[in-house]
């Protein structure tokens, strides 16, 4: 039996349907999925606002924004990377890019695309260094926003205690003396503790210690990035110095079971004269209490910002932040690239900086006069120049977990509930931490 | 007189119909339970880490190497702190299981008496059990806080039992910070089970014992306890399994930061989950899960062998 010829009418009908389908398909809105972290108070609404100009310029585009919490984001990001079922554009913490790219989940950003953005020289060098692994020249993400860390201190407390902040934050010796002098100063009938920092129940333990370790000349990995350097003399000196504030009662013992958010609340409530944190609390201190801010607090009207006091090798701060990347699984890579380049462009970075108090990563945005009009933001922009970041290795994630656990455990010792705190005990604990870190590095080979 | 041999009934062929009815459920159970177990076992034979995770089941096959690493290689990062977690888990299991059973039994005996408002009291006492374990972890995490937690407020400020506010969430006290909420949440359901068992015990032996002048305590020891033994034994086995696999409470109470509760509150399951996921050693993590499952099977087998007779007796036997 010969194959049946299609009926001419049916053939025409099919042709017509196909043509209509193709026409509809080309006019149909491209739909992109974008995953971002919860960085502002109203991330979803802020993203809608931020995307408005791009959507107006691309009426056929739809962007579905999913907001992830920082705490649970890592598990979701790795699941998306492993399964290939992720969004088109994804925000990645600056320490995550090497790991996720090593899983083969990210589309590399080509030379032409980089040129469109102005190339590496258009961005803060430290932030650009986080967009690729040290052993892989391919770029996998574009820096979106940055944050540096600095001291927030109570000007009224310093004044009452007779301490000049310029001397206090000059170096490690003068900082310790200033904290001793300030500790217990009474403000509005309430004694204030000199310094507040969290103990082990916090994500920021490593980030909190990093500037001190770098300022002492220490680091987290050896120069060849193959071994841990946490037990090197300089790093141990920094850890001893940092933990000594709690051991000497300059940080209240109760702070040691708190997390960073609770320590920041303690600063707003007048519990601590100094805390080290990032620019994100500026927004809180400029927002009225009725809108969930801290504007009316004594801290909000009596604070200033200072850099970390200098150690033997100068003063460094941790410069971290987020980048945007395109996932390999994206079916709309051209649209995804347009969205990514819009969000990492000058205007969007400036707008997002106003929304979140984070810093832009583009140098032309950092130079914006309007941004610098806020003296606190201007200070952070200046501090960012001394910023450093962790080694850009694929295995940083597991390594940070080891460091988080072991550095966090120091606070049990400082709190007097585990062994006796001494520089020797800290050194021994860091030897054990370095050994565990080396085992994790070896296991990842 | 010799007994007449009973007529042998013709052997009936088993009716396939009930088995056919069971088949969909069996297939579903196999799909839901067996597939992940087999997949997990296969994962334990693979080099599954951050670099190979995207390949998933196509990751390099390494045979029993993951088992060798977790059992015999002291340098395996997965084993860091395993000894302490094992010690804590055994102590935690013993203290929680025995305390929860003792309190549950004691409260069941009280609730078995007649008093006004008994039904309301039973309902109220069940409340801790209704609270999900992750909520229990979060709530008690707040309550144990040194400066603002209600526990130190009661112990130090109200009752003046302690001079100084102790830490509960760091140091050796953290062991009690996980034991007490677990017991608090567990005993009500045991009370309910023991109460049901108590109510199935007939009155006759107690009436006879009372007539013979046997004291209430002797009645408890020689009548109640032996008759409850099968229920107690099976509940003890369930408690041991539950507590060895305990995860939620520790994870919720110490989930921030590295999720490391310190050397006194780290249990086996939180440790294995934390280390296999944060160090991205998924193959080794799967291997250690199978080692634990095998050990648990041996334990349950030995338990059943030792107590099979007692556990098959009913309380009113």
What does this structure look like?
The complex is a heterodimer of chains A (445) and B (317). Chain A has 445 residues and is α/β, with parallel strands linked by helices. Chain A has helices at residues 8-27, 43-57, 70-83, 97-102, 111-117, 125-128, 155-161, 165-168, 172-182, 205-215, 233-247, 260-268, 280-285, 298-301, 333-343, 346-356, 363-366, 369-372, 375-384, 396-414, 423-443; strands spanning 30-37, 61-68, 89-93, 142-147, 150-154, 185-187, 190-196, 272-277, 303-306, 317-318, 320-326, 359-360, 387-388. A six-stranded mixed β-sheet of chain A has the order 2-1-3-11-4-12, sandwiched between helices. A five-stranded mixed β-sheet of chain A has the order 6-7-8-5-9. In chain A, helix 10 packs across helix 11 and helix 11 crosses helix 20. With 317 residues, chain B is mainly alpha-helical. Chain B is built from 13 helices and no strands. In chain B, helix 2 (65-72) crosses helix 13 and helix 3 (82-111) packs parallel to helix 8 (174-199). The model of chain B has no long low-confidence stretch (mean pLDDT 89). Classes of the chains: A alpha/beta (445), B mainly alpha (317). The interface between A and B is large, with 43 and 34 residues.
